[in-house]
Amino acid sequence: MATIKEATQNAMAFARDSLGEERTRGLQLEEIESATGDGIDVWRITLSMPDLSGLGAFGGRRDYKGFTVVKSTGEVLSMRIREVSEA
């Protein structure tokens, strides 16, 4: 069983491998949720990183990615763009 800490580390490693070191510099944990998807118990983990497009790198904007990690194995099943509303 993957702990929350292990699942988060796996999601961060997946992000770094997929997106590259420069883009994931400043990677931060934002949210963790326990869920069931397609009959599988998973962790849904949201990570953020500095937005490097346009002025975002200087304006403090962040990109958010949602990861689905299988609780029983720690395997990362998916990485998705996570839209965050600006209130």
Structure overview:
This protein has 87 residues and is an alpha+beta fold. The protein has one domain (4-81): Nuclear Transport Factor 2, Chain: A, CATH 3.10.450. Helix content is 23%, strand content 41%. The protein has helices spanning 4-19, 56-59, and strands at residues 28-37, 40-50, 62-70, 76-81. A hairpin with a 2-residue loop joins β1 (28-37) and β2. The N and C termini lie far apart (37 Å).
Q: What's the SSE blueprint?
A:
Layout lengths: L3 H16 L8 E10 L2 E11 L5 H4 L2 E9 L5 E6 L6
Antiparallel strand pairs: 1-2, 2-3, 3-4
Q: In brief, what are we looking at here?
A:
This protein has 87 residues and is an alpha+beta fold. It has helices spanning 4-19, 56-59; strands at residues 28-37, 40-50, 62-70, 76-81.
Notable traits:
87 residues; four-stranded antiparallel β-sheet
Count of individual beta strands? 4
What is the residue-mean pLDDT, rounded to a whole number?
90
Give the number of domains.
1
What is the CATH T-level topology?
A: Nuclear Transport Factor 2, Chain: A
Net shape:
globular
- Written as H for each helix and E for each strand, in order along the chain, the element string is HEEHEE
List the total number of helices.
Answer: 2
Task: Just give the CATH class.
Answer: Alpha Beta
